[in-house]
Amino acid sequence: MPRILLVCEYDGTDFAGYQSQKNGRTVQDVLAKACSGLYEKQITLTGCSRTDAGVHARCHLSHADVPFFIPEENVPLALNSRLPGDLSVRRAMYVRDDFSARTCVLGKRYVYRIYTGRTPSPLHARYMYFCPHEPDVSLMNEEAKAFAGEHDFAAFCAVGSSQKTTVRRLTGVVARRDASQDNIIEIEVTGEAFLYNMVRIIAGTLLDLGIGRADMLSVADIIRSCDRQKAGRTLPAKGLTLEEVFFDEPSARNYNI
Question: What is the DSSP string of 92-157?
């Protein structure tokens, strides 16, 4: 059976995350139902990331083994006619039989967005966290440099989560104002893999530093502490978007189809 990779985009507001659950509407279940209807056979999907309830994705990868060939360019059209408005297949490509959206991914890029001002914006409410203060973004960006590299990120992992190791490697973290709208702050986090709630805790820590929370240590000291209590708050899921997933497309593609 051919193996197909689906690149999806979704508004996570009304999803209980990506991964299938017994009591919750999930991206995996909705997408699998559409695939099963299209191919008239039960289709099992494997995703690149679980994404928490409320987290959005501009680029999320899932793969599945399907019973017959449909031209790549036609798959998104066929599936999107069966999908709700908050989930879309942007692209499809046939990949090698040993390609996995879970294990063959090289890294991911997330962006957490914060809207600042005296009053909240209803137009941004689903996709950004509102902060009534004006943080020092230059300070946030300077502190963010300490995240780069391989560290024990125990201080940036949700308490009680089960992890074999809390060591992770981040390519970098950047805090900046949006080029087109000055009162939107973007915190971009790129890395190989992430702990549970890690990006949201990184964003909360940088924001707390930016607004001058008196008891905050530097990011470097928080990392060294391995103490979740030393880091900042976990910001709400709605501000987080999975923007990009990295994989070796030339070596992944099945050129025999």
Answer: EEEE-TT--TTTS--EEEEEEEEEESSS--TTTTTTSEEESS---HHHHHHHHGGG-EEEE-GGGS
The radius of gyration of the chain's CA atoms, rounded to the nearest angstrom, is: 19
Catalytic residues, by residue number, are 52
Which of 104, 132, 157 terminates a domain? The answer is 104
The reply to whether 219 and 153 lie within a common domain is yes
User: Where in the sequence is the domain holding 42, given as residue range(s)?
Assistant: 3-104
Q: Name the E strands within 97-166.
A: 107-116, 129-131, 149-152
pTM to 2 decimals? Answer: 0.95
Question: Total domain count for the chain?
Answer: 2
**8 A C-beta contact, residue 47 and residue 57:** no
Q: Whole-angstrom Cα distance, residue 67 to residue 210?
A: 53
Same domain? For 134 and 80 the reply is no
DSSP state of 119: S
Tens of pLDDT, residue by residue, the chain (257 residues): 899 999 999 999 999 999 999 889 999 999 999 999 999 999 999 999 989 999 999 999 999 999 999 999 999 999 999 999 999 999 999 999 999 999 999 999 999 999 999 999 999 999 999 999 999 999 999 999 999 999 999 999 998 777 889 999 999 999 999 988 889 999 999 999 999 999 999 999 999 999 998 789 999 999 999 999 999 999 999 999 999 999 999 999 998 88
Q: Is residue 7 part of a domain?
A: yes
Structure tokens at 114: 């914060």
